[in-house]
Amino acid sequence: MLEKLLRKKTLEMDSSISDRLTKVKNGDIPSHVAIIMDGNGRWAKQRSLPRFAGHHEGMKTVRKITRIANDIGISVLTLYAFSTENWKRPKMEIDFLMKLPGEFLTTYLPELIEQNVKVEMIGNTDGLPVHTKEAISRAMHETAQNDGLILNFAMNYGSRLEIVETVKEIARLAIANEIAIEDIDDALIDAHLMTAHLPEPDLLIRTSGEVRLSNFMLWQLAYSEFSFTEVLWPDFDEACMLNAIEEYQMRNRRFGNVEGDKGS
Ligand code: IPE
Ligand code: IPE
Ligand code: MG
């Protein structure tokens, strides 16, 4: 039933979107797309609404973008939802943001399961309220067997904290003589990051016109393509997502090599 409804929704998709989707699918599809979802507060302000109204609207964008990411054939979609620096915000706003995963996952979990989406999370769970932790772990548990798109929420995530924790763990291994200093290389560091099981992002998108990383995946983004847009996150839609993927498909990724040489 739900599947039928979803298919109908896809068919109802604006024909220009579905044409673009078909073309995009014939091109090089980024395996991992990471998004810094920014601009919810400004979206609300433009409408004289409280900031939380922007966060609530942003949740609908998460649903939309998850669906199109799945349609495109992206393997991993990482969404930066709350940073380790966002604790500086007013308590009321933080409380609201901490309730969003629960609301999102309760509302959309059946749909995510239907779409074969697997929910995951990176970030420091210890710092999250119990109800937030429970909502996320329930969704992770209920989608654990799914092998479609990985929907990875970065929640209470900070790249520097992640790197500090990685350095500590590697130092412990060295002190315990489980590794030699010479064993420390890119691969070992990768293996101790929270993203150890994921490919590096091929494409990073940031909405709202800010051109910075705000402590997001500093290590993992070393060779990613960046796409910045003025569009505020609640206004980011399927067409915007396709714009970013089309932009990505025009890029020439060299990884330090010369143009045209795929390397050996
Ligand atoms: C992004 O929107 C959501 C989070 C960072 C949690 P903002 O709340 O940062 O919106 P702006 O940047 O103030 O417009
Ligand atoms: C980055 O957005 C964090 C998230 C999207 C979760 P911010 O709005 O917190 O970033 P700054 O403060 O403008 O750098
Ligand atoms: Mg912001």
TrEMBL record:
Its EC number(s): 2.5.1.-
Cofactor binding note: Binds 2 magnesium ions per subunit.
Subunit composition and interactions: Homodimer.
Enzyme class (EC, first level): transferase
Domain of life: Bacteria
Cofactor(s) annotated in UniProt: Mg(2+)
Family label: Belongs to the UPP synthase family.
Residues annotated for substrate binding in this entry: 39-43, 51, 55, 83-85, 87, 89, 206, 212-214
Keyword field: Magnesium, Metal-binding, Transferase
CDD domains in alphabetical order: Cis_IPPS
Phosphoprotein keyword on record: no
Organism of origin: Sporosarcina saromensis
GO MF, one example: transferase activity
Protein name: Isoprenyl transferase
Function (record text): Catalyzes the condensation of isopentenyl diphosphate (IPP) with allylic pyrophosphates generating different type of terpenoids.
Stored InterPro entries: UPP_synth-like, UPP_synth-like_CS, UPP_synth-like_sf
Active site: 38, 86 (proton acceptor)
Binding site residues for Mg(2+): 38, 225
